[in-house]
Amino acid sequence: MKKTIEISAGRGPKECNYAVEQVFKRLQAEASERGISVQMLSQLMQDGLPSSIRCELHGPDVAAFCQQWVGSILWICASPFRPNHARKNWFVAVHALESSPERLKFSEKDVEFQTMRSGGAGGQHVNKVSSAVRAIHKPSGLMVQVMDSRSQLQNKQLALQRLQEKIAAGFDEDKLELKRKQWEQQVQLDRGNPKRTFEGLRFKEKGR
Predict the structure, then answer these.
(1) For residue range 123-168, what is the model confidence (pLDDT) as tens digits?
(2) Which residue, among 119, 92, 100, 79, has the nearest Cα to 20 in the 3D structure?
(3) Which residues pair with 144 in a beta bridge?
(4) 11 to 99, 117, 132, 206: CA distances (angstroms)
(5) pLDDT tens-digit map of 19-55
(6) How far is CA 116 from the centre of its chain?
(7) CATH fold for the domain made of 2-101+191-205
(8) Where is 179: in which H helix or E strand?
(9) What Gene3D superfamilies does its record include (predicted)?
(10) In the CATH scheme, what is the code of domain 108-174?
(11) Cα 84–44–81 angle (5° rounding)?
(12) What whole-number distance in Å separates Cα of residue 49 and Cα of residue 152?
């Protein structure tokens, strides 16, 4: 089983980026103890430190392990970068990411064709035979109707082409929506009720 999570400082300062790095190291250590592998997928660097790290976890009970981290993480420490800075509470967020939508494999076998007569202006029939085509992609429910040509075969070919275009467009929209949600997660931090709290430069967990 696998899970993808992202550790993010949102729009926080350098101290939060430092906390992102420390959270990732701590997560790696705990995962190793549980027989869970952690693979870094990407990281966004800022001022020499990661403002976000995305990683994939594989192993037994990985979902339960991730739930121990998902939420806001509080690091309590005087700033190691600004000695006179009064703030001591720094927050980062750990998000579970949805899987990227899989592109539907288009197959003509999944398309149901229905034929009909093409209607012209004024109610006249363009054709006396059923040359217009309605094509339904059964896995997605998408449908197109084509009456461009007098040839039923050509209309079927056009219908297949337009179905493929609609499916591809829908896949791209789903990916964009997923990216939008992930971006919103990255910039929003819940500063109430932290899931876990760490203290000091050694990043020792409070209460343990």
Answers:
(1) 444 445 678 999 988 877 788 899 988 889 999 999 999 888 887 7
(2) 92
(3) 135
(4) 24, 59, 55, 25
(5) 999 999 999 999 999 999 999 999 999 889 999 999 9
(6) 41
(7) Alpha-Beta Plaits (3.30.70)
(8) helix 152-187
(9) 3.30.160.20, 3.30.70.1660
(10) 3.30.160.20
(11) 10
(12) 62
Residue 9 has which token pair? 């400082």
pTM of the prediction? 0.60
Check if the beta carbon of residue 74 is closer than 8 Å to that of residue 194.
Answer: yes
In this structure, are residues 93 and 189 in contact, taking their beta carbons and an 8 Å threshold? Answer: yes
The one-letter code for the residue type at 151 is S
For tokens 């729009």, name the residue. 11
Q: State the virtual CA torsion across 4, 40, 191, 12 in degrees, nearest 10.
A: -140
Residue 89 phi, psi (nearest 5) = -105, 120
Structure tokens at 10: 């949102």
